[in-house]
Design a protein that fits this description.
Elements lengths: L4 H33 L2 H25 L16 H18 L14 H22 L5 H24 L7 H5 L1 H14 L12 H16 L6 H26 L8 H36 L5 H16 L3 H19 L3 H16 L10 H6 L12
Helix pairs in contact: 1-2, 1-3, 2-3, 2-5, 3-4, 3-5, 4-5, 4-8, 5-8, 8-9, 9-13, 10-11, 10-13, 11-12, 12-13
Length: 384
């Protein structure tokens, strides 16, 4: 039931107060738990950082309550809805994660806490948009919360990975990539320079998803700094390229509507999405075969998995999934035996297939539909 907007906004602010109370109760419980593991000074620091993050989120939520309506504009909904509740749960997990910034080295099971918190946040993020579409409750409020909470979560997760010595300090720039991009556009508009719209692309969402997945995994305490830093360069390159290309388009250096650009794009897609993945599949399978033949790379328990994944990879059967498995096996090997030419090259091949797909002559690629389609969206609507 929809009420008069003014009355509805008052009701939403009352619900905002309840959300803030719930956040506060969870953080108080977390503070009590930290006291069982840490000295009081470290537990207080955890609480201060978690509360600061909560304050930012609650400020964004209170301001954005006025947009709790459909994107096209309509009367306000009197409640936040299930999907927004899921997004707020993500925000709460981010608050708990933020408390670990600038803290002591985490030991035991607590060393897994940041990774588990961020991975759970990412899983919820995968489904909250689907729930909004399924329940017909897509709102501007949900879009604002999703975007802002995403940015804050990535920034905190990158900070924690840097703290673990799993990411270089310069990765913070990539963590702030979206905010810096928007700020640069604002600067151009202020200086009365032209700003062009970006053409739709199925790759932005894919690259962003791979990036947050990578950050989730790089928080695992299993990796050596050497392996983590090497992987950071591999995942940074596609993101830098994506931002760079988009900036050239919006700043009018490249005319995305020109025939010359479209022709160059077709040639680039043929090379990078068809032939390069094919080469990476073949090289990855050969490298895996060499490492299996050598006999001292993969433990006996995982040798069969490496062989199966290499077979699927070279055939182009669920190639991205096979590449992901091989990336894990190569990273585990590099963390235990050191980064070497063979496991390093296998990581590169796996990352190429993960980002570019299986390419030419792939036999079966069912994952492509799910990677390029929003969950719950109409079948003819692909993610951009």
């Amino acid at each position: 039931m929809l009420y008069d907007d003014k009355r509805t906004l008052t009701e939403l602010r009352r619900r905002w107060f309840y959300v803030a109370l719930l956040y506060g109760a969870v953080l108080a419980t977390g503070y009590w738990a930290m006291l069982q593991w840490w000295p009081a000074s470290d537990a207080v620091r955890w609480l201060v950082l978690a509360t600061a993050t909560m304050t930012v989120q609650m400020a964004v939520l209170r301001w954005a309550l006025q947009f709790n309506h459909r994107p096209a504009g309509a009367p306000l909904y009197p409640d936040l809805g299930v999907a927004n509740g899921m997004t707020l749960t993500r925000g709460l997990l981010t608050c708990l994660m933020a408390g670990f910034l600038f803290g002591p080295t985490l030991q035991g099971w607590l060393a897994w806490a940041p990774a588990l918190l961020y991975m759970t946040e990412r899983v919820i993020d995968f489904f909250d948009g689907f729930v909004a579409r399924y329940t017909s409750r897509e709102t501007r409020l949900g879009s604002i919360l999703d975007m802002e909470f995403d940015g804050l979560g990535i920034l905190i997760a990158v900070g924690l990975a840097i703290q673990l010595d799993h990411l270089p300090v310069w990765y913070l720039i990539l963590g702030l990539g979206r905010q810096l991009f928007i700020f640069a556009i604002w600067i151009r508009k202020r200086r009365r320079k032209p700003v062009f719209d970006l053409p739709t692309s199925g790759h932005r969402r894919l690259i962003a998803g791979l990036q947050t997945g990578f950050i989730s995994i790089i928080l695992w305490p299993l990796w050596t700094s050497q392996v983590a830093m090497f992987a950071a360069w591999l995942f940074a390159a596609p993101l830098v390229f994506s931002f760079g290309r988009d900036w050239l388009v919006v700043s009018a250096v490249i005319d995305a509507g020109s025939e010359a650009y479209r022709s160059a794009r077709r040639r680039a897609k043929l090379l990078f999405e068809q032939w390069l993945p094919l080469a990476a599949r073949g090289a990855g399978a050969l490298l895996t075969g060499w490492m299996l033949w050598r006999g001292d790379t993969f433990p006996n328990e995982t040798a069969w998995l490496a062989g199966l994944s290499a077979t699927l990879l070279v055939l182009g059967v669920v190639g991205r999934a096979a590449a992901l498995v091989l990336a894990f096996l190569a990273a585990f090997n590099a963390s235990s035996a050191g980064l070497q030419i063979d496991n390093g090259l296998l990581l590169i091949c796996a990352m190429l297939v993960l980002h570019l797909g299986s390419g030419r002559f792939a036999l079966w690629q069912p994952e492509e539909y799910y990677l390029h389609t929003q969950l719950g969206a109409p079948h003819n609507e692909t993610a951009v």
